[in-house]
Every structure is written in structure tokens, then in C-alpha cells.
Amino acid sequence: MDDTPLRYSRESGDPPLDWPPYKSTSLRHPKQPLVYLPHTITEITGPRLGGIISEGDNDLTNRHAGEPIGERIIVFGRVLDAEGKPLRETLVEIWQANAAGRYRHRSDRWPAPLDPNFSGAGRCMTDAHGGYRFVTIKPGPYPWGNHHNAWRPAHIHFSLLGRAFAQRLVTQMYFPGDPLFSYDPIFNSVPEQAARERMIARFSIESTQPHWAAAYEFDIVLRGPAATPFE
Amino acid sequence: MRFTTTPSQTVGPFFEIGLPWGTGPFAVPEATPGAITIWGTVYDGAGEPVPDGLIEIWQADPAGRFADLHDHGGPSMLGGFRGLARCATRDDGSYRIVTVKPGRIDAATGAAQAPHIDVSVLARGLLRHCVTRIYFADEEEANAADPLLARVPAERRATLLARPIDDGYRFDIRLQGPEETVFFDV
Fold this sequence. Notes:
The structure holds two protein chains of two kinds.
Chain A: E1 35-36, H1 41-44, E2 72-81, E3 91-96, E4 121-125, E5 131-137, E6 142-144, E7 150-152, E8 155-160, E9 169-174, H2 193-198, E10 202-203, E11 214-217, E12 220-222
Parallel strand pairs in A: 2-11, 2-12
Antiparallel strand pairs in A: 2-5, 3-4, 3-8, 6-7, 8-9, 10-11
Chain B: E1 35-43, E2 53-59, E3 84-88, E4 94-100, E5 117-123, E6 130-136, H1 140-144, E7 161-165, E8 168-170, E9 173-174, E10 184-185
Parallel strand pairs in B: 1-8, 1-9, 6-7
Antiparallel strand pairs in B: 1-4, 2-3, 2-5, 5-6, 7-8
């Protein structure tokens, strides 16, 4: 056993479940009060999943015969807990629209072109320093039916299992300076400015590779240990 | 120094291109002796099936041990046991997971607990995932002594009970409505 926490902090900047500006929440958010669950062994443990990763799963641009269309980018960063401790050996999964803003999904009806050379999904495990890295295409923004003239800012979906059930996180990474931020009810469901900024990647000239790909750095911070052993 | 945690965002309607794995719905290899199926339907507040949800489970093995990264409580000895499974709901809102029935968790790990499975529910329209637990209707004695069930109002406990069926258990999830499933603050 390593020095992993026995209780996790519940501090979070998460959005509320009931958020009328995002219409799909209306029939799907639980209305009864949540029952407090003191963390037990079930919540402080987490799976070993190295076996599901294959070499190259973190490169979304080389899955097909040709190169996908769009702006090749590197998305990299570290997975940390709230105390800054790197989280090694944890699964990072991403999925996204193509450069035209279209997902390769049967229910995506936006008539932007599909790219035969882009599937839009990848995964990797963090390294010993909590680091991860993907090569992909910058996704396009796209319209959706939430309200009149609704557009999602360009984003990449991220799923993190963390090292314990209590650290599970699904989020979205956004790109700096997107003009659609102020109109997006999903981005703005996060109440605090500092927490919203956590979801925006930083352009990194240091990691940008000349004549090849721009780089965006996106550190992901999962919950850390509870401040005291007893909450 | 404490860092601001990254906030949750909805999994959206298109996660199926990225999150399912081939063996995702299997917490154990299907041929494992004692393997069971847990299946059910996810419903919204109008009683309609949720066809774009994701169910993820995490649990102990029949000996009450986890396939844990940190070996908390001692490692599971059950061959091929992953303890984690995930399954996207189908068009009719149903999911199906193959696993083994978890055992009781003994007090040495902090608190004695009835057999249970932690469940994360993700979907378009959920800005953060909801957590519930599957307990088993045929574990009355253990359930009666479970410290978490004791925190749940008695009239709502039945929403946490999986019911025995032919080859396993049935566990429906109601996100909202008169029989809303109990969800936990984790």
C-alpha cells in the first residue's frame, strides 16, 4: 500500500446539477437531496488499467491511411491532485469533433463533413510524473439545439479515472480566447471564474514544434486528500 | 498550497466514440465461475428511457477485496477480476454488466459494509456524474447492518436494491421522479 489518502476533499468548483440554461438538465437532474457518503474503502480505491492501452493510442492523427484535415496540435499536461501531487498511472481518455465541428457519431446531425481520416478518440496512461500527451487536430466549434443560435466553443472531452473512485472526473478542455465562451451555458455552468479558467488550455510556444504542430498545455487537477482525517 | 480543482462538465451526447471498450461491460471475464449479469434501464424524470447514458461500476470481489492500484485491504486473488466495468445505455435505455457478486467488506478496512457496488451515472444533461450504490435485495441481514444504508431515509432504500432475476440482478436507475434513485454526495 502506498501513501494514498483515506478520505478525499469534497471542495470543488463543479457546476450544479440543476442548471436551467442547459435545457437537457431539466428532466435529468436528481431533485432529492444527495445523501452524504463518508468515504469507505470502495471510494478510496481505483483500478489498474494499463492493459487496455496500446502503443499509439495517444495519436489521433495516424489511425487511417491519410492525414486528417485541420490544424495538427499537441495537447499535453500533468494530472495532479489539489495538493499538487502528480498522479501517475491514471487513465486519460479524450474524444472530440473533427476540424469542421463534426463528431463521428450516428446521432450528430450537423451537416459539416466527416473526415475519413479522423475518428476523434484517444487514450493514454499518465507517466511517473503524472504527464500525458496527445497529438490531434484542433476541433471546430459547432451549433447545437439548446437555444436560438447556440454554438459550443471548440473543446476536447476528457475523462479521468484518477487513482480512486472519489477522484473520477469528466470535463472539457477549451482553447484560449474563444469568442463563444460568454454564450455557452455549459462552460458557464461552472460558478467560479477561477474554476472556469482551469478548463482553458494554455498555448505553449516552448512545446510547439517548428513546422509541425502548435502545443496546448492543460493540467488537470483532481481532488486531493481531505484536510483532516475526519470530515 | 492548494490548487483549484478542474470542474466537471457533461459527458455530452457523443461519448460513445471514445469511452466504451471492447471488454468494457465485463468486470470479470465472462467465463468466470459465479459470474452474474446486472442489467437495468435508466429513466429520466418523464419516465422515458435515457438512450445516451453511461454506467460505470467499481466493486470488491466475492472475498470483499479490490483489484486496487494501492492494494488497500489486500489484493483481490480472483483471476481476471478488474472490478471496474462501463456500459453505454442502448436506444431503449438499458445497460448490461457482467461481474461477480461482491462480498461483505469487513471492519478491518474501516467499517463493515454489506455487499455493494459503487455506480457512476453519466449522461448528456448531467453536468457532473451522479453516484449511487447497488445493494442486493437478497442480503437482508447484511443490509440491515450497513452504515450507509442507515443514513438513507427508510422509504427510499428500496431504490438501491438490485432484485434477483434468472442469471443475475436487475437494477433500474431513475434520475428524477416519484421513485427517484438515491444518489450520494461522495
